[in-house]
Design a protein that fits this description.
heterotrimer, A alpha+beta (about 80), B alpha+beta (about 350), C alpha/beta (about 375), A: about 80 residues, alpha+beta, SH3 type barrels, about 40% strand, B: alpha+beta, 60s Ribosomal Protein L30, Chain: A, Phosphoribosyl-aminoimidazole Synthetase, Chain A, domain 2, five-stranded mixed β-sheet, 8 helices
């Protein structure tokens, strides 16, 4: 049930917090997504979208940390 | 009341079904349910020699000449979509079925079932589109029929086309000819038509817009044959996508096919849409892509010939045929594992779960 | 796509698989909690890359799987009710009720509409004020904010023709029930990353303390899943039981506060029946009294629609990790994705459907994976 996909926030519309929406790009696919659960999110950030709603903003530094950890794993190999 | 009474006479035929008394949309989805419907209901009722060979077109021999003959009905919604419309599809789809039998497509019939209320202007535009498509594909629409049904009895417009093509001497293309070691090629990236249609229905927006891949493949096949190449089997990829076609070939040839996920061309737009909708691009329909199975020593030359043709520019060698214990389709995944590539079940539904 | 492709990298997957082989000296059984993870594991063939002594047990699956027959029957009853449209996610269409699925109800003339988001159903209710629009609200914590938001929007718009048929479930009580059951075979859990994106770490920290098993908050891409497996095994090998969160790019330690606030404004915790597991206390969500106007169970009289689950189905044992799907007598015969008997055969990510789809005849593990 938890199919959620990362996409980049292109623009934001709507004043009422319940109806605040954003255009989110998943590669070349653009969808209008509710931002009601992410009041602080800024244009340009990546958000995780589930059932038409952004539920989390992606932390680029944390993503990088995992990738760095993987590189160190690869170096450990003979 | 000990005497055994005769069973009551029934007019209904005890046809096996999938447990439901009604035909569902999924029975037309090109997947397992559709195969079941064909195998259990349609084929036993309508069996003829050619029909049982289960190919895209029947090949009929008459006076020493071989004709390919096929028919297909088109019910696509919406009737006009990015990259095509129902008229164009009705021509190209039947042309492609003939091409898959190795035939040069020549003549088409067109049967129109029009629902009362269809705007005259729209019908005119769709008919112009059919004519244009026939010119592009190099076929002539030589006969036809028009029926109008009550409002509510149709969905605007349905089109049936039948087609006849000529198979040159020495050409015999059929899944049963597939052999151990054959190369498996696809003529371009997969899934565009299905996603373009879904984009219309679900209101998905693409930047740049995604267009259906619908195109006539008769010319492409003739170029291949003209270059002296002799594919064992051709299939145009439609409903059920690449996965369904691979399965049909594996089943018909009783051989296994192993394909490499990384070698299967998928456009970024199709890949992204499939991520968002939870679909597998290998199960999404095309309308202008051919799967080709041919002797391994012809693979390199075939790719060369395909890639200089505008409809084969994205051609790729995606796998090979192997003799195994089971006639199955194996996918070598992008991350380096192997798994069974399954036949899609029925209707392709966006999933969230 | 950014944040997907990097986490499907072939070399990274190979080195993680090698690290897992090096780390695991004893047999370990891990349960991935979410059906989405199961789907990813089978789709990418990740289980074939693991050493023999590491076994993945497919967990409670997805909310589709655990939705009771009765909820489906009620949705069908509403779909067949004149003037009512039953909206739901694509996967719910094929879930078997006691006499057919929503897809069959649609074929028989029921008004069943598939939507991408519950907010689309709110829009439909706004556009067609004469139509009673009911959304079948199933889900884990991941989906609860979307349902809460739908109710809040409908309330704000003053809609009188929108309601939810709620069959929402909560993950921690299920983990606890599985870990505490006498026949449990699970050494550690890979927690569902997207549930945690909403709820945060706290509930899972508490679970680790009570159950004394390692829990690793895990994402859905191949790299994320194998990293979850690796960290879990390293804990087990050291005799540790901690909560770890290598999915921090998505999961904050306190989750999404805004989403939590919306969910608790609209919903309250209630006991809920899980298909195959039975009733668990405080394991579901129901609308709070202030929002009873949006409760389809109260708006329409559904009390006459009652049903029990099919006895031939061993979904309960599959969900508890006691049986693998193919060890069920009905697997692949009486029960197939086209004619599913039990819920885990229904959803594409259901443990049984995933097995049927990818593992019916075993593919050979790749020999190249070690390089």
């Amino acid at each position: 049930m938890c199919l959620a996909v990362p996409g980049q926030l292109l623009s934001v519309t709507g004043e009422d917090p319940l109806f605040r929406r954003g255009r989110v790009a998943f590669g070349p696919l653009v969808k209008e997504i509710s931002l009601a659960c992410l009041p602080e999110v800024k244009v340009g950030q990546y958000v995780l979208v589930h059932a038409g709603i952004a539920i989390s903003a992606i932390d680029a530094e944390e993503a990088q940390r995992v990738l760095a950890l993987l590189e160190s794993l690869e170096e450990d190999e003979p | 009341m000990t005497a055994k009474r005769p069973a009551p006479f029934e007019l209904s035929c005890p046809l096996p079904d999938d447990g439901a008394d009604t035909i569902r949309l999924a029975h037309g989805g090109g997947g397992r349910l559709m195969q079941q419907l064909l195998r259990e209901l349609v084929l036993p009722a309508l069996t003829g020699q050619a029909l049982t060979r289960q190919h895209d077109a029947a090949v009929i021999e008459t006076d020493g000449r071989r004709l390919a003959f096929t028919t297909d009905s088109y019910v696509v919604r919406p009737r006009v979509f990015p990259g095509g419309d129902i008229g164009r599809l009705a021509v190209y789809g039947t042309v492609n079925d003939l091409a898959a039998a190795g035939a040069r497509p020549l003549w088409l019939s067109a049967g129109l079932i029009i629902e009362e209320g269809l705007p005259r202007g729209e019908l005119a535009a769709l008919l112009r589109s059919m004519r244009e498509a026939a010119d592009i594909a190099g076929v002539r629409i030589v006969t036809g029929d028009t029926k109008v049904v009550d409002r509510g009895a149709g969905d605007g417009l349905y089109i049936n086309t039948a087609g006849i093509g000529l198979v040159e001497p020495g050409i015999d293309i059929h899944p049963a000819h597939v052999q151990d070691g054959d190369a498996v090629l696809v003529s371009g990236d997969v899934g565009r038509h299905g996603i373009a249609i879904m984009a219309c229905r679900e209101g998905l927006e693409f930047e740049p817009p995604i267009e259906s891949d619908c195109a006539p493949l008769g010319g492409l096949v003739q170029v291949l044959l003209g270059a002296g190449l002799r594919p064992h089997c051709l299939r145009d990829i439609t409903r059920g996508g690449l996965a369904a076609v691979l399965h049909e070939i594996a089943e018909a040839s009783a051989l296994a096919i192993e394909v490499d996920e990384a070698a299967i061309p998928v456009s970024e737009a199709v890949a992204s849409a499939c991520e968002v909708l939870g679909l597998d691009p290998l199960q999404v329909a095309c309308e202008g892509r051919m799967l080709m199975v041919l002797p391994p020593d012809q693979a390199a030359r075939t790719l060369e010939v395909l890639r200089v043709h505008p409809l084969g520019a994205g051609a790729s060698l995606i796998g090979r045929v192997e003799r195994r214990a089971r006639a199955e389709v194996i996918l070598r995944s992008r991350v380096g594992s192997r798994r069974i590539l399954d036949l899609p079940g029925g209707e392709l539904l966006p999933r969230i779960c | 796509m950014k944040y997907l492709d990097e986490f499907r990298d072939r070399d990274a997957v190979a080195s993680l698989a090698a690290a897992i082989r090096a780390a695991a000296t004893k047999p370990w059984r891990l349960m991935e909690v979410c059906g989405g993870q199961t789907h990813s594991i089978v789709r990418h063939g990740l289980d074939t890359l693991l050493p023999e002594n590491v076994e993945l047990i497919h967990g409670p699956g997805c909310p589709v799987c655990v939705t009771p027959t009765e909820a489906i029957d009620r949705a069908i009853a509403l779909a067949l009710r004149p003037g009512t449209a039953l909206c739901t996610f694509g996967d719910m269409l094929r879930v078997p009720g006691s006499r057919g699925s929503l897809a069959q109800a649609k074929a028989e003339g029921g008004d069943v509409r598939m939507v991408y988001s519950p907010l689309d159903a709110v829009k439909l209710a706004q556009q067609e004020p004469e139509l009673e629009v009911v959304f079948l609200a199933v889900g884990f914590e991941t989906t609860a904010p979307a349902h809460a938001l739908a109710v809040l929007q409908a309330h704000n718009l003053g809609l009188r023709n929108f309601s939810l048929l709620v069959s929402h479930v909560l993950v921690p009580p299920a983990i606890e029930a599985i870990a505490a059951s006498a026949d449990s075979r699970v050494d550690g859990f890979l927690a569902a990353g997207h549930v945690c994106a909403v709820m945060g770490e706290e509930q899972y920290r508490a679970l680790v303390e009570r159950l004394r098993v390692p829990i690793v908050i895990t994402g859905f891409e191949p790299v994320d899943i194998l990293l979850g497996v690796l960290l879990c095994i390293r804990q087990l090998e050291r005799g540790e039981a901690r909560l770890e969160n290598p999915y921090a790019r998505v999961v904050r330690s306190d989750g999404n506060r805004q989403a939590q606030a919306m969910v608790s404004e609209v919903f309250e915790e209630v006991p809920r029946r899980w298909r195959g597991i039975g009733e668990l206390p405080r394991s579901g969500l129901a609308l709070r009294p202030a929002f009873h106007d949006y409760d389809a169970e109260r708006r329409f009289d559904l009390s006459g629609v009652r049903a029990d689950d099919d006895p031939r189905c061993v979904a309960g044992e599959v969900l508890r990790g006691v049986k693998k799907p193919h060890q069920c007598g009905a697997f692949g015969t009486a029960c197939t994705p086209e004619r599913p008997l039990g819920a885990p055969m229904v959803s594409a990510e259901g443990a049984c459907a995933a097995y049927y789809r990818y593992r019916r005849s075993e593919a050979q593990p790749a020999t190249a994976s070690a390089t």
